[in-house]
Amino acid sequence: MSVALTASRTVALLLVGLYAGGVLFAVLAPSVGGLPGAAYVRYWQALNVDYGRAMPPLLLTGIAATAVTSALSWPRGWLVLGLSSAALLLVILTVALTLAGLEPLNRVADSWNPDKLPADWHEIRQRWLNLHLVRAVLAVAAFACLITAQAVDHG
Fold first, then answer.
1. Are 117 and 37 in contact (CB under 8 A)?
2. Which residues is 120 bridged to in the sheet?
3. CA–CA separation, 6 vs 150, rounded Å?
4. Between 26 and 93, whose confidence is greater?
């Protein structure tokens, strides 16, 4: 296996794995959903700041590393190429879902006064949670594809 493929796959695994774990945590932390409205919205708003800073460079670098991994997987066989390419597509889908579905809801939530929530805040939160669940599944699937590609690449 080439040094470039090993390096790009390692970076892709680390960054996509970190991303998948980060988004999966919100799914696995049901106690957060039980917070009173004001506390939940403050939590949501704080996460929007942190994730808004960290996710773009993490995801762009992860996409780049996964794209390089996919390109360098061409001579490794159809299975390795297919798994690497599937991982790339899945990560890109998470970004599209984030930009089209989750970010608009985050902007709405960021505009709220936590002490005077709109009447429909529960519905907006539930829509966000549903979209986030899809994003988490896609991210974990991308990570699983990269792990599987690593495992089946015996060259």
1. yes
2. none
3. 9
4. 93
